[in-house]
């Protein structure tokens, strides 16, 4: 439980925008940051004390991270478990813990865990063979969604099956890998909740965000979302169950389906700071990045109340070229990631449009 | 007037806490930052893309800064004019301009300039010799304050003369250097105003702060200060006169004496972000650091309204050891500078205590 003192070093696996914003938050609290990322001059490396340029399973790099850093965290969920073990052996505390990674890396484990802690999901069926898939389609009906159990994000590694006769094509499209078949949720809207658990077991939950996606990629988050008390209570209960169930330390992002009439399903969890939590940078005194750093370094959690209403919009690909027009809007806060080139669909930055909170 | 695009490089002369917080703001807007500072691993260098370790008058270092950077600014006012010229010759724009530096580096020039633009100061007398000092004491009476014309900050390089017989001792204490003698201002309190001017000539002014010093060093700033409309108007007029008079680009800090009944005197100006503006980090959507970066990079200025009431307190020397207790206070935002060791009086960090704005 020891609180790591300012001057301690935080290691981050992954040098993208999430690592960058984590690093900036850690620096504000007086910590030094070291990034591990295979690409030189990563967005996070450019704002940190140092970067180790190596693959995420490079034993020497992991040994250095374990020795140089007092604590280590990550900006993506597909960190190899062996890497985490090796870092921990070097002496650094790693957060979130191995349980969170194991659950988040496998969609079947994830849904099983979620339902086990009372966080309901859509109905699902494990698919190891084409036969399993046929049985799943009989059980869940169509349309239903076939996803690889591992990897895939932003809509990749998944395919909708509209009728039973499409089973073979879908199975082949995903390479015959172990999959999970998910029933379609008749949801009204997508919400998400950002929450944190400290080393002392305390839980802090931010107001809900309402999300709009396009092409499987997040476009906007509106927060605090307009929700009735039942939804708010249900979401908080889910966040608490997930965090405690995983003995979690740090920030988690939980995507939810709002079915109406106060009913929520959990879509998925991300064991890290989350794109749908970027609104907290300009809507809360302690944003999700500082909150995560606080938890990982053993500090008490910060406040989660919103002081403003925020509409967060991702800048994808050449949308970042709108910076000049955006820079003149007084209600818009700009957050850019220092990335180049602006490949189509690449997350280059985001803007938070800030409005007074409606009481 | 060109707006420098994200991906451009900002150079900062000086790697202390002001350079550090400027760098963090620049990074948020997608700029890379290079620091010039004679000390390795400076607070700012540790959160920036790179640091050149060299004296501020090293010709090679200045040439590199001029070539690598698209724009260059500084975190302290005693930058040699020749250094600025050399950087500019390399191709980088430098802001604020030479007029601001010339005025800020010499207290006699500063007071002369201020009164010239209608920003009243205490009465003063130029002191080049001990005879000048005696004449000044006759004119201004005692007690009065003898200051070196150049250098000195946080109460250094100045001595109070309580009676005419103390003239020689004061003159010797300051080493017989060119000085300025200042009359005592019968002020009720110290205020300061943080303001900015863009490359397009636009001026933006933050709400006033009320400052408390101890031993010549700033302890706390309370902002927005409680002031009547006359004071507010007078301060805004002063800020505008100073910024336009200097054809300034960037953020300026202006220290004021409140004489009561709506009357203000200017104590001094700092051509840079200012300790009394740190409250803006947690009280405004666009803080003084982003504001300065916006101006220097040719971007439109950001909004200056306060969304919270903030009490900023400096953490001096071993006061930084209070971090553990402070980390548990939910209304306190911590800003640490990554400095060691915590020498007595050294500015190690600050905290902003945030309260709802009183309307």
Topology (SSEs and partners):
The structure is a homodimer of 359-residue chains.
Chain A (H helix, E strand, L loop, with lengths): L8 E5 L3 H12 L3 E6 L12 E4 L5 H10 L2 E4 L6 H10 L2 E2 L3 H7 L2 H10 L7 E4 L2 H11 L3 E5 L9 E4 L5 H7 L5 E5 L5 E9 L5 E3 L3 E6 L2 E7 L5 H17 L4 E11 L2 E8 L9 H4 L4 H9 L11 E9 L6 H5 L4 E5 L10 E10 L3
Parallel strand pairs in A: 1-2, 1-4, 2-3, 4-5
Antiparallel strand pairs in A: 6-9, 7-8, 7-9, 10-11, 10-12, 10-14, 12-13, 13-16, 14-15, 16-18, 17-18
Helix pairs in contact in A: 1-10, 2-3
Summarize the main sheet of chain A. Answer: 9 strands, antiparallel
Silhouette of chain A: globular
Rg measurement of chain A, Å:
20 Å
Query: Using DSSP, what is the number of strands of chain A?
Result: 18
The quaternary state of the protein chains shown equals homodimer
Biggest interface and residues each: A-B, 43 and 44 residues
CATH fold descriptor of the largest domain in chain A: D-amino Acid Aminotransferase, Chain A, domain 1
Mean pLDDT of chain A: 96
Structural class category of chain A: alpha+beta
Q: In the CATH hierarchy, what is the architecture of the largest domain in chain A at level 2?
A: 2-Layer Sandwich
Regions of chain A with pLDDT < 50 over 5+ consecutive residues? none
Query: What share of residues of chain A is helical?
Result: 25-40%
Helix and strand succession of chain A? EHEEHEHEHHEHEEHEEEEEHEEHHEHEE
Please report the first level of CATH classification, the CATH class of the largest domain in chain A. Alpha Beta
How far is the N terminus from the C terminus of chain A?
37 Å
CATH superfamily of the largest domain in chain A: ATP-grasp fold, B domain
Task: Supply the number of structural domains of chain A.
Answer: 3
Number of alpha- plus pi-helical segments of chain A:
11
Strand content of chain A: 25-35%
């Amino acid at each position: 439980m020891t609180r790591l003192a300012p001057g301690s070093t935080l290691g981050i696996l992954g040098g993208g925008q999430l690592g960058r914003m984590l690093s900036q938050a850690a620096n504000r609290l007086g910590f030094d940051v070291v990034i591990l990322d295979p690409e030189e001059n990563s967005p996070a490396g450019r704002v940190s004390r140092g970067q180790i340029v190596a693959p995420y399973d490079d034993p020497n790099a992991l040994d250095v991270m374990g020795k140089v850093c007092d604590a280590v965290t990550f900006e993506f969920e597909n960190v190899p478990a062996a890497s985490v073990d090796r870092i921990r052996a070097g002496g650094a505390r790693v957060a979130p813990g191995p349980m969170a990674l194991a659950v988040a890396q496998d969609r079947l484990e994830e849904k099983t865990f979620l339902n086990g802690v009372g966080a309901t999901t859509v109905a699902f069926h494990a698919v190891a063979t084409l036969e399993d898939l046929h049985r799943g389609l009989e059980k869940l009906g169509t349309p239903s969604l076939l996803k690889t159990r591992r990897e895939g994000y932003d809509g990749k590694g998944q395919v909708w099956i509209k009728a039973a006769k499409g089973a073979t094509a879908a199975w082949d499209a995903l390479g015959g890998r172990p999959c999970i078949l998910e029933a379609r949720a008749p949801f009204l809207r997508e919400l998400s909740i950002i929450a944190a658990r400290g080393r002392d077991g305390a839980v802090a939950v931010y107001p809900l965000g309402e999300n709009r996606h396009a092409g499987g990629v997040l476009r906007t988050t509106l927060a605090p979302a307009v929700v009735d008390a039942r939804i708010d209570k249900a979401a908080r209960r889910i966040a608490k169950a997930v965090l405690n169930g995983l003995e979690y330390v740090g920030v988690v992002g939980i995507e939810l389906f709002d079915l109406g009439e106060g009913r929520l399903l959990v879509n998925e969890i991300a064991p890290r700071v989350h794109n749908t939590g970027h609104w907290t940078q300009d809507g809360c005194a302690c944003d999700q990045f500082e909150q995560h750093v606080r938890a990982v370094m053993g500090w008490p959690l910060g406040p989660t109340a919103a002081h403003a209403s925020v509409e967060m919009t991702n800048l994808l690909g050449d949308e970042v070229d709108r910076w000049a027009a955006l820079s003149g809007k007084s209600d818009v806060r700009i957050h850019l990631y220092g990335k180049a080139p602006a490949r189509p669909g690449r997350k280059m930055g985001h803007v938070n449009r800030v409005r007074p909170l409606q009481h």
